[in-house]
Amino acid sequence: MVEFKPFTAYIVDACRTAGGKKNGKLSGYHPGELGAAVCDALLERQKLPGAEVEDVIFGCVGQVGAQAANVGRTVVLSSRLLPESVPGTSVDRQCGSSQQAIHAAAQAVMSGVHDCCIAGGVEVMSLVPIGANIIDGMKAGHGFPMTETMNQKYEQKLKAFEQFGISTSAFSQFGGAELLAQKYQLTRQDVDRFAVSSQLRAAASTKAGKFQDEIVPLPVKRKEGESEGVHLEDEGIRGNVTAESVGKLKAMFPNGIMTPASSSQICDGASAVLICNERGLEKLGLKPMARIHSLALAAADPVVMLEGPIPASKKALEKVKMKIDDIDLYEVNEAFASVPLAWCKALGADFEKLNVNGGAMALGHPLGGTGTKLMTTLLHELKRRKKRFGLLAICEGGGTANATIVEMMPSAKL
């Protein structure tokens, strides 16, 4: 009997579009075209023939309309460089969809089933609004369909939403963000301060050119069809915010502390990473940027909903016998300010290592495209700082979460 020895999953390269705000500079793109642009950029940067890619796995939350019918395959068929012989598939793990795509691609190359895959994600929220794939989803004010059994099981817990004037008939990400803030004793001042920090960090990083290596330049394409040059910078950044200006905003719900400033921005965008095992690296003559050190999933209370990154991160660390202090940089998605702040408290993490270039409150949250977007930023910042370990975690609808630990390779620091 032949003993099976798993391969290692390596990230060769990672890129993203600059975020486009609602009805902004990317709003005229079909999701398939936007996803194809980042895939083609990876192939061009690595001088890799598209036929060598064995699967394209794309995260997408709003799988309806232009994002329906397997947007992963639409991406392949829209590509200039990926031949039609390359398969494509779509993943929905809510906001962590493209992080799950990374996990799926990593598992494929670790098993040896494939040697080279692209994991990515796309969401054109100007074209396919949040909740568009849920029957009466936006009308009900939630993003998770409920069964009769679920309603009965969580009826008592859902009553906690009454204090915020939020419907108690369904899960709510907004209610979850408020409950999370209560659980971890976060104040309005805490979330406002973090919201300002996210904007100022994003503005400073943009001004310093820190995103240049990760952003794929694209012609501006608005819904109206006119072209206005090249899109190179994230549109949602407000570099002139202050604690005073944010403090004047009205909370979104009675007795709540979250405001539009301390919430993620609607965003159009796509991102992708190229993943190979050692056999693929050797065969294709590629150098790894990083290796995937640990993968983890977790599921938590769907009413609080957004707490999943905490147990997922703990699992990812435990799997490789690491402590949070061993990690050099963290990216925890800023779905709401309460999520990364609660995560920091629960893990005893260093705030100065968290979302150092700003996060979704400033740079936008393109739902299914956020996982590979944040991984792209994390890898490039680790490379710039010549640091070793990074951790990515994202909260997801329904109370689930992904966590990924990466280790930079010496070849990435040359």
UniProtKB/TrEMBL annotation:
<comment type="similarity">
    <text>Belongs to the thiolase-like superfamily. Thiolase family.</text>
</comment>
<dbReference type="InterPro" id="IPR020616">
    <property type="entry name" value="Thiolase_N"/>
</dbReference>
<dbReference type="Pfam" id="PF02803">
    <property type="entry name" value="Thiolase_C"/>
</dbReference>
<dbReference type="InterPro" id="IPR020617">
    <property type="entry name" value="Thiolase_C"/>
</dbReference>
<protein>
    <submittedName>
        <fullName>Steroid 3-ketoacyl-CoA thiolase FadA6 (Acetyl-CoA acetyltransferase FadA6)</fullName>
    </submittedName>
</protein>
<keyword id="KW-0808">Transferase</keyword>
<dbReference type="InterPro" id="IPR002155">
    <property type="entry name" value="Thiolase"/>
</dbReference>
<dbReference type="Pfam" id="PF00108">
    <property type="entry name" value="Thiolase_N"/>
</dbReference>
<dbReference type="InterPro" id="IPR020610">
    <property type="entry name" value="Thiolase_AS"/>
</dbReference>
<feature type="domain" description="Thiolase C-terminal">
    <location>
        <begin position="286"/>
        <end position="407"/>
    </location>
</feature>
<dbReference type="InterPro" id="IPR020613">
    <property type="entry name" value="Thiolase_CS"/>
</dbReference>
<dbReference type="InterPro" id="IPR016039">
    <property type="entry name" value="Thiolase-like"/>
</dbReference>
<keyword id="KW-0012">Acyltransferase</keyword>
<feature type="domain" description="Thiolase N-terminal">
    <location>
        <begin position="10"/>
        <end position="278"/>
    </location>
</feature>
